[in-house]
Amino acid sequence: MDREIWTIVMTEIRAAVRHVGQRWYREPLWPDWLVVAMEVWRTAHNQSHSWACDRSNYTGAFRPRKRTADGRSLPSISQFTRRVKSAAAALILQRVHDRLSGRVAGVVPPAPPVRYVDAKPLTVSPVSKDPDAARGHVTGGFAKGYKLHAFVGEDRRIQVWGVMPLNVAEQSVAMAMVPELAPGPAVAGGAGGGLTLADGNYDAAPLHKALAAGPGDRLLTPLKARQRVKAEGHHPVTLRQMGPQRREAVAVWDDHPALADLVLKQRNNVEGVFSVMTVACALTLPAHVRRLPRVRRWAGCKIILYHARLLVQERAAAA
């Protein structure tokens, strides 16, 4: 792993531990920062928990010191797997993500006003016995596994994300993530003025309303079933039921279709983010990552590594 990336990750992990301020009745032999760092290290190398507990798998970039009288520097497999599932480890990982993604004051500036929402399948074998994996639609057919859902900023950072089984509707997960989004930039009257771009799967009136009521965004997507709309337009009852936000989207496509299509092409940026994560961060489920909690933790570590890589690139470009 690139030493610069790991330096950023370790700096943020230690800062997150100080912020979380976990208090123990007795100081544990294996501190929280070490457990979280081991989890990110093994995820970066796509290895198992047992691999992470073997000292020979660490390099000069990260080599834990000996902490016991018998020379042990790492917890046992049972200790590690138990501690990495703790609430303290989850809080630390969340804090690291929040700082690197810009959701809280940290190492990057606030997010720009345009963002994108999309989902990427994380498939497993069709004969996998994982009880949490589900069959769902993917491009070109059906598969079994999970799906990473994400709101991505114009700066290519993943603002809010979630992992659900593959059969859960994308717009439903997006609506659940909306309350976690930061407000868009204020415009006249104090309302948010952000814009969210998405594909046609997200064209749902409840999502239009949720984005407007939450961060104050307007949602622009290709309109579903547009070919079935008659020449005289939507029925008045249909227009009334869809709400003012989707009526605005319909008016945009009716009055300025070329402009709407041009703006919507920027949504390709989210595909680029998933492509970089797949190629540079190996965003493909390894065989030892199964069950929903473990898949979520694995995806979260991959996103942290992606943000650290992005920050290294930005610093190099600014130098």
**Helix coverage percent:** 40-55%
How would a crystallographer describe the biggest sheet?
A: 6 strands, mixed
Q: Which percent range describes the beta-strand content? A: 5-15%
Q: Which series of helices and strands comes N to C?
A: HHHHHEEEEHEHEHHHHH
Distance between the termini: 22 Å
Q: Round the Cα radius of gyration to an integer and report it.
A: 22 Å
Uncertain ranges: none
Overall shape: elongated
Count of the domains:
2
How many beta strands in the DSSP annotation?
6
Quaternary structure: single chain
Structural class: alpha/beta
Give the integer mean of the pLDDT values.
88
- Number of helical segments? 12
Q: What is this entry, summarized?
A:
The protein is α/β, with parallel strands linked by helices and 319 residues long.
Task: Spell out the key features of this protein.
319 residues; alpha/beta; 2 domains; 12 helices; elongated
Account of the 3D structure:
There is one protein chain. The protein is an alpha/beta fold and about 325 residues long. It has 2 domains: about 5-105 and about 290-319, no CATH class; about 115-270, no CATH class. Helices cover about 45% and strands about 15% of the residues. It is built from 12 helices and 6 strands. It has helices at about 5-20, 30-45, 50, 75-85, 85-100, 170-175, 205-215, 235-240, 245-255, 255-265, 270-280, 290-319, and strands at about 115-125, 135-140, 140-155, 160-165, 195, 220. Strands 1, 2, 3, 4, 5 and 6 form a 6-stranded mixed sheet that branches. β2 (about 135-140) and β3 (about 140-155) form a beta hairpin. α1 packs across α5. The chain is elongated, with a radius of gyration of 22 Å.
